[in-house]
């Protein structure tokens, strides 16, 4: 029987799944009714972003499993590569 992650990866070809990665930075910002979370992981210089309605406890130093896809965000006229997180869980 396939797991939920396997089903998502088969259905959406652009998704990537990373297992047991270490979080080096985690920030949370209010953007209206949502809290935008930005995390950085070890050995990667691209931010991973996701929105939730409530704040999380800090993930800094934690090991997590991520499912995400690449995206481009325009900030002050510059294109910046980011990763949009679809699923996040502690390892």
Summarize the structure.
The protein has 91 residues and is mostly beta strands. The protein has one helix spanning 4-11; strands at residues 16-31, 34-41, 48-52, 63-75, 78-90.
Structural write-up:
By secondary structure, this protein is mainly beta. The chain contains one helix and five strands, in the order αβββββ. It has one helix spanning 4-11; strands spanning 16-31, 34-41, 48-52, 63-75, 78-90. A five-stranded mixed beta barrel has the order 1-2-3-5-4.
Topology (SSEs and partners):
Layout (H helix, E strand, L loop, with lengths): L3 H8 L4 E16 L2 E8 L6 E5 L10 E13 L2 E13 L1
Parallel strand pairs: 3-5
Antiparallel strand pairs: 1-2, 1-4, 2-3, 4-5
Order of helices and strands: HEEEEE
Major sheet strand order: 1-2-3-5-4
* Number of discrete helical segments: 1
Specify the oligomeric state: single chain
What is the CA-based Rg, rounded?
14 Å
| Uncertain segments | none
Mean pLDDT: 88
Instruction: Say how many strands there are.
Output: 5
Largest sheet: 5 strands, mixed, barrel
Q: Which outline best applies?
A: globular
Strand-pairing-aware structural class: mainly beta
Residues in β-strands, percent: over 45%
Distance between the termini: 21 Å
Indicate the percent of residues in helices.
Answer: under 10%
């Amino acid at each position: 029987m396939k797991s939920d992650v396997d089903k998502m990866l088969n259905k959406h070809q652009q998704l990537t799944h990373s297992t047991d990665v270490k979080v080096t930075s985690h920030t949370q910002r209010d953007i209206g009714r949502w809290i935008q979370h930005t995390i950085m992981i070890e050995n990667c210089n691209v931010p991973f972003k996701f929105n939730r309605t409530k704040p999380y406890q800090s993930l800094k130093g934690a090991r997590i499993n991520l499912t995400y896809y690449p995206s481009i965000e325009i900030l002050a006229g510059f294109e910046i590569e980011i990763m949009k997180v679809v699923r996040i869980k502690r390892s």
